[in-house]
């Protein structure tokens, strides 16, 4: 079997550390027990030819022999299909878990990303900040739907799946706010996911790369 190679940034500014989307793939690989190698890139300057791996020039890209994948959600699904930890063997349960993967990326993440953009990129733009109240309300609506579904469950379905992995990864993007912390059941759900050894190992691996490549001018 060919070694898995995962593209990742060697360094990003502190506000993005622990959130770059290669973390989602690292986590899935750790849950599945699949070893991998890193292909480290400069986030400002991608090597020539990289867009043949990732058409949009982003990370991550996934390489395994002749197979090249891009988009973190698609990569996580590919890994999950090889792991009963991430997708149950029962067809109906797999389908339910897959639905939550799509929900995390298509329903919950977009309003969160809009709020993140306002807060982290346009905080000094009065016009953008006027949109913030509506953006917060949209995020709250999504969070309330997730916590209503949990309704005492530990996970979105009967056990942890790739749907929880992606949902937790998306919820972590709100760490600069108190939106998750202000909902105890949701905060507990996120903490439960983050307590998984595979997540801790994946996060430590990403953060170790950033620490090793942080030049004095970048600190």
Textual characterization of the structure:
This protein has helices at 22-32, 72-80, 91-121, 126-129, 132-150, 162-171, 184-194, 197-212, and strands spanning 4-9, 36-41, 61-64, 67-70. The chain is α+β, with helices and mostly antiparallel strands. The model has no long low-confidence stretch (mean pLDDT 94). It is built from 8 helices and 4 strands; from the N terminus they run E-H-E-E-E-H-H-H-H-H-H-H. Strands 2-1-3-4 form a 4-stranded mixed β-sheet. It folds into 2 domains: 4-84 and 199-218, Glutaredoxin (3-Layer(aba) Sandwich); 91-196, Glutathione S-transferase Yfyf (Class Pi), Chain A, domain 2, CATH 1.20.1050.10. Helix 1 runs antiparallel to helix 6 and helix 1 (22-32) crosses helix 8.
Ends apart, CA distance between termini: 39 Å
Structural class: alpha+beta
Highest CATH level, the class of the largest domain? Mainly Alpha
The number of helical segments is 8
Q: Number of folding domains?
A: 2
Average of pLDDT: 94
Could you say which overall geometry the principal axes of the C-alpha atoms support?
Answer: globular
Fraction of helical residues: 40-55%
Beta strand count: 4
Strand order of the largest sheet: 2-1-3-4
The ordered string of helix (H) and strand (E) elements is EHEEEHHHHHHH
Main beta-sheet strand count, sense and barrel state: 4 strands, mixed
CATH architecture of the largest domain: Up-down Bundle
Low-confidence stretches: none
Using only C-alpha atoms, the radius of gyration works out to 18 Å
Report strand %.
Answer: 5-15%
Q: Could you please say which CATH topology of the largest domain applies here?
A: Glutathione S-transferase Yfyf (Class Pi), Chain A, domain 2
